[in-house]
Amino acid sequence: MLNQQGSHQLPHAVPTIKDVAKAAGCSTATVSRALAAPEKVSDATRERVNQAIAEVGYAPNIAARNLRRAESKTIVALLPDISNPFFSEIISGMEDVAHQAGYQLLIGDCEHDPARAESYFRLLSTNQADGIVLLTSEIPKALIKRADGQADFPLVMACEFFSDIDLPVIAIDNHQASCQAIDYLVSLGHQRIATLSGPANNPICRERLRGYQDTLSAHGLGDKACVAEGDFSFRSGYQQGLMLLDSASAPPTAIFCHSDEMAIGVLKAARQLDIAVPEQLSVVGFDNIGLSEYCEPELTTVSQPRNEIGQQAMQSLLHLLRGERVIRRQTLSSHLIVRKSTGKVNV
């Protein structure tokens, strides 16, 4: 049979899930979820999909049974940088819960590349993975955001968050943690307190920076704020530390870093400039990675419950996969660990 353009056309082509998605005005993933787990989609979406199924003549019951059999029992943990030691305990906590529930954990390293993140999201749409725990906000929002601001796949965020996408989040109160660190430095007599932030477009860095600024202002030190930006790495801590400490004007007597890696980089910069820590400079990190206790001097840092964050993130994702109710925001406690990199200011 030929169409008007003279090309062959099947007179009775079998309708596909793509045909349903096009007729319903949604993604194929949403159609799949409406078939396999209708309780996980809204009533309006379910009705729209059902109407599209009737319109194109699709066979949903067979598809739904196939989808159930195709469950991968695989969860993806998506990281921005697998070499960062911060993630090790989080992954350990996730693995414990996943293993007990009969799931395997696949580690996806984005390497700060949105295109690499997209390749892992394709595992969901092809039923090679059941859900993703996001440990990074460095992904194209178009991958997960529908018009109503909801996620299009079973997704949970750990440590980080988006301000405009409604995902379950497990994290600490970064503003409060930052306030606690700056309060402590002020209690030691420091007034020239600089901060070495992570990337300015990162929501958790904005929260930590806000805590730094709010606390300085509360102590009447707002005009003494000094902010440098790094990328959480040892190298950026070292480079920005040299810049802050080797300035012609009065250098800071304390530096609050948004990661332990950057703080350790600052310690190296101080050694290179013959600045004694903590006698001339106090340094505070963030995260309490294993190396923070074994560097010289031992690092004062904000401790995150990273293993618990991983466990809670995996449990939340498993609840989503079962169609159970999930708490949208779980805030876990952090605390300041005082070690030898901080001391009273020498006037």
Summary tags:
3 domains, alpha/beta, elongated, Rossmann fold, single chain, six-stranded parallel sheet, 347 residues, 16% strand, 434 Repressor (Amino-terminal Domain)
Describe the structure.
This protein is of the alpha/beta class and 347 residues long. It is built from 11 helices and 12 strands. It has 3 domains: 17-69, Orthogonal Bundle (434 Repressor (Amino-terminal Domain)), CATH 1.10.260; 74-172 and 306-332, Response regulator (Rossmann fold, 3-Layer(aba) Sandwich), CATH 3.40.50; 174-303, Rossmann fold. Helices cover 39% and strands 16% of the residues. The chain has a 6-stranded parallel sheet, with helices on both faces. Strands 7-6-8-9-10-12 form a 6-stranded mixed sheet, sandwiched between helices.
Alpha-carbon Rg, integer: 25 Å
Question: How many domain modules?
Answer: 3
Question: Helical segment tally?
Answer: 11
DSSP strand count: 12
Would you identify the CATH architecture of the largest domain? 3-Layer(aba) Sandwich
Percentage of residues in strands:
15-25%
Q: Please, what is the oligomeric state? A: single chain
Reading off the top of the CATH hierarchy, the class of the largest domain is best stated as Alpha Beta
Helix-strand pattern: HHHHEHEHEEEHEHEHEHEEHEE
- The CATH homologous superfamily name of the largest domain equals Response regulator
Q: Which residues sit in consecutive blocks of at least 5 with pLDDT less than 50?
A: 1-12, 61-69
